[in-house]
Write a structure and sequence with these properties.
Layout (H helix, E strand, L loop, with lengths): L1 H21 L3 H21 L3 H26 L3 H6 L1 H25 L1 H4 L14 H12 L1 H22 L11 H6 L2 H4 L12
Length: about 200
């Protein structure tokens, strides 16, 4: 039964990944990517990596993909212009695909016996906690790489903010200091007018 579930979600993951690449609508590609993340989470569950599965759903599907959808809809991607340069970059894309296929083929056929990844891993005990083991590994053996990754992400966030806040012609921005210093006399003018009699 477990093998049937694995092959079902594996086939769904491959189909959704193909849909991400081949879909003509960017929003449809993003939705196929959501399906790929969800099916990957099920595969993590089969490997008894519950924490990674939950993080994949909550972080990537719940936050990152929502951000992707907002960016795709806000950018208003011109599909015709994107397709115009497809033939120009097609040879490079094919070369990258062939390199990836060669690497995967080497792992699957040449190192199967060495890595022994085609066999299901042994089941853990009932009291085993994958989350506890992952946390202990991250904060003991891999504490410095973990902190380094956090610093790199912080630098990326600061760089993204700096890129969006750059000076652009015709950009309307708020000047909070001028808004606070404004007075009524600068904005409102009282005019005294004589009353007019109706006809």
């Amino acid at each position: 039964m477990e093998a049937v579930i694995f092959y079902f979600f594996g086939a769904a993951l491959i189909a959704s990944a193909i849909g991400v690449v081949t879909s003509r609508n960017p929003v449809h590609s993003a939705m196929f990517l959501v399906l790929a993340f969800v099916t990957s989470a099920f595969l993590w569950m089969l490997l008894e990596a519950e924490f990674l599965a939950i993080v994949l759903v909550l972080v990537y599907v719940g936050a990152v993909m929502v951000l992707f959808l907002f960016v795709v809809m806000m950018l208003d991607v011109k599909v015709e212009q994107a397709r115009a340069g497809f033939t120009r970059y097609a040879p490079l894309g094919i070369a990258v695909v062939m390199i990836i296929v060669a690497q995967l083929g080497y792992v699957v056929w040449a190192r199967t016996q060495e890595m022994n990844f085609l066999q299901a891993p042994p089941r853990a005990d009932a009291g085993f906690s994958n989350t506890e083991l992952l946390g202990s590994q991250l904060y003991t053996d891999y504490a410095y790489p973990f902190e380094l990754a956090a610093v790199i992400l912080l630098v990326a966030i600061v760089a993204a903010i700096a890129l969006t806040m750059r000076k652009r012609p015709g950009l309307k921005v708020q000047d909070v200091a001028r808004q606070v210093q404004v007075r009524r006399e600068d904005r409102v003018r009282l005019v005294s007018m004589d009353a007019e009699k109706g006809e």
